[in-house]
Amino acid sequence: MSKKPADFSACLKANGVSRRSFLKFCTALASLLALPSSAVPALSEKLRLAVRPSVIWLSFQECTGCTESLTRSHDLTIEELMLDYLSLDYHHTFQAASGAAAEAARAQAMRRFSGRYLLLVDGAVPTANGGVYSTIAGKSNLEMLKECSAGAAAIIAVGSCAAFGGLPAASPNPTGATGVSMLMRSGQIPQKPLVNLPGCPPLPAAISGVLAHFLAFGRFPVLDDLNRPLSIYRNTVHERCSRYHFFQQEKFAQHFDDEAARKGWCLYKLGCRGPVTHNACAVYKWNQGTSFPIESGHPCIGCAEPGFWDQGGFYRSLDAAALAYQSGDESAESAIEEGHQLYHDSCVYCHSVDPSGFRTDPAKIAELLRSGEIRSHRRLRFSEDQISILDKYLRSGK
Prior knowledge:
Elements lengths: L7 H7 L4 H14 L7 H9 L5 E6 L5 H7 L6 H8 L1 E4 L8 H14 L4 E6 L2 E2 L8 E2 L2 E2 H10 L1 E7 L1 H5 L12 E2 L1 H6 L8 E4 L6 H14 L12 H4 L10 H5 L10 H4 L18 H4 L33 H10 L2 H17 L15 H10 L12 H13 L2
Parallel strand pairs: 1-2, 1-3, 3-7, 7-9
Antiparallel strand pairs: 4-8, 5-6
Helix pairs in contact: 2-3, 3-10, 4-10, 16-18, 17-18
């Protein structure tokens, strides 16, 4: 088995990466981290001579999407080189060892590199009922995190689940899922330098950029009040969106397949959370820089923000959500949203996506469904509750 290179410069050379390509990466990295152009030479030199660090990657309540984000790269990339260069001593997805051998490798790395290893965490940590909802090698996630964080030089919370609790922490949160920063604030795990990289999943450039910065300078880049790298999460998705000019012109899609949507108009009316979501998706994009969700036709769901899953539904505009909150009419808005979903699940196969063009008065449709007079509708067998929410949606005109 060949010995891994001791420094990043040797790793680059072994993989055939030219100095020109490496400097190009450093320039892009400096831009990502909002460093001045004068910092590029220092960054390249420090990164080139960086010593290979030990990394322990813990995966808790997660879907492996964060790991996929870092590894789904094309051709030979710095992300791949860094994974080859880092001493990744423990990672459920990558490690060949399993069971007792895997846990022995983690324990050995913790002893050998105590106070120097990087701890990466993805997935929320369940705390209810003693953390029984997720265990590894007979230990709860919280117990393992507490043990590993004690000797860590720093911690990187990768993804919204590790940063803020994410989807596992969505109401009613039966497992008591929470993020690393909250556990640190409550004193359940030791205080350590921490950076949050939220997103579901986070951008590959965010993960590799922060790792490179720590390798080069021994510290994290400047962070915001949520411990996110300011250079990546300073601006909203909305500010740098490719559809922003349509927002300024007040040109909005009203339905997912209407003419406005086909023209690429703004998705604000369809519930886009871009104006309140801080991330660089619109700049660095996905799938080899092809696009990001809004560019592909789906509203931003706000996945880089705390509690994004419980923000009142993804497919109503921020204005509608604010009005419902101010009027205290959350239940009515929720019924309209459910009725909208029911209509799209059951009715669009025969009717227009936009029901505003119905010849039948919307106020009479519920009565017709209850009567069973329309033969083609008898197979639907809507319950009274379903007819009620469908009636609210059709009457709302939304």
